[in-house]
Amino acid sequence: MSDGYQRVIRALRRIEDAPLGTKAPAFNGGAWLKVANGWRWNGHTSYPGDIFPRPMGGWTGDLIYPNDLPARPGDGA
Questions:
Q1: pTM (2 d.p.)
Q2: Considering the domain boundaries, does residue 28 fall inside one?
Q3: pLDDT of the residue at 76
Q4: Looking at per-residue confidence, does 44 or 20 come out higher?
Q5: Does residue 70 form part of some domain?
Q6: Which of 23, 34, 51, 58 could form a disulfide with 64 if both were Cys (CB 3.0 to 4.6 A apart)?
Q7: Residue-number span of the structural domain to which 28 is assigned
Q8: What's the number of CA atoms in the CB half-sphere (13 Å) around residue 47?
Q9: What mean pLDDT do residues 55-75 have?
């Protein structure tokens, strides 16, 4: 079953250039979701947290791009 996201890939783009809807997973199992004004903690859940300028210290360094994002050479997909 697809949840609308591609597999996890290592962040090869600058985090600031990630498209809206990108997830940035954390070591503790949560994730930040790219929104118009930053990164929302657990923004993909029914109880989202605050918005931060970028993912915080628990970020794994991976990004999960939305499935509707066209594949680009060098993205590792």
A1: 0.71
A2: yes
A3: 45
A4: 20
A5: no
A6: 23
A7: 9-63
A8: 1
A9: 73
3-class DSSP assignment, residue 47: coil
Residue with tokens 């985090």: 15
Distances from the Cα of 16 to the Cα of 13, 28, 46, 50, 76, angstroms: 8, 22, 25, 18, 18
pLDDT digits (tens, 9 = 90+) for 22-45: 999 999 888 999 999 999 998 777
Choose among 29, 27, 28: nearest CA to 61.
27
Strand order of the sheet with strand 23-25?
Answer: 23-25, 31-35, 38-41, 51-52
Q: Look at the block and give the residue holding tokens 């915080």.
A: 56
Burial 18-32 (b: 16+ CB within 10 A, else e): beebbbbbbeeebbb
Please give the pLDDT value at position 8.
57
Query: Hey, how many other C-beta atoms are within 10 angstroms of the C-beta on 40?
Result: 19
Residue 68 counted as domain residue: no
Overall domain count for the chain = 1
24 found inside a domain: yes
Quote the mean pLDDT of the chain.
77
